[in-house]
Design goal:
The protein is mainly beta. The protein has one domain. The chain contains one helix and twelve strands. Strands 1, 2, 3, 6 and 9 form a five-stranded antiparallel beta sheet that branches. A three-stranded antiparallel beta sheet has the order 4-5-12, with no helix packed on it. A hairpin with a 2-residue loop joins β2 and β3. It starts with a strand and ends with a strand.
């Protein structure tokens, strides 16, 4: 799970089929108090979710969460202090859009990644 040293009590995990994926350190980007970079092994075309959990000693208050995928912001949500410390955490698995009276759910999915001369079925995705 990704944990930022500048925000103790906040942790983030990437889930596939409800299970957290193994993370690997990104040696090329050093960790700072407010930035961490990890790699995960993913399968192209597979749906995933982002789970963040807030617990003590995280400072009580409201929290704005922005989710970026492939460098583009895909979500921005505010959580009030009274809902923030839910022990089950907060799972985001996609975004909803409206067209007229219909609402459509767009689930997060791992992109098809190109690999060089490798016939591996899995790829590493940076988040």
């Amino acid at each position: 799970m990704a944990v930022l040293s500048g925000y103790p009590g906040l942790k983030v995990e990437i889930l596939v089929h409800g299970a957290a994926l193994q993370e690997y350190d990104n040696e090329s980007e050093p960790e700072t108090a407010d930035k961490i970079s990890k790699y995960i092994e993913s399968k192209s075309g597979e749906h995933f979710a982002i789970l963040f959990t807030v617990s003590e000693p995280f400072q009580r208050g409201n929290l704005a969460v922005k989710i970026f995928l492939d460098g583009e912001r895909v979500s921005h949500k505010h959580y009030d202090a009274d809902e923030l410390f839910d022990p089950a955490g907060h799972e985001v698995d996609g975004e909803s859009t409206k067209s007229g009276t219909q609402t459509f759910k767009h689930k997060y999915v791992f992109a098809v990644a190109e690999t060089s001369k490798s016939k591996r079925r899995t790829t590493f995705t940076h988040f």
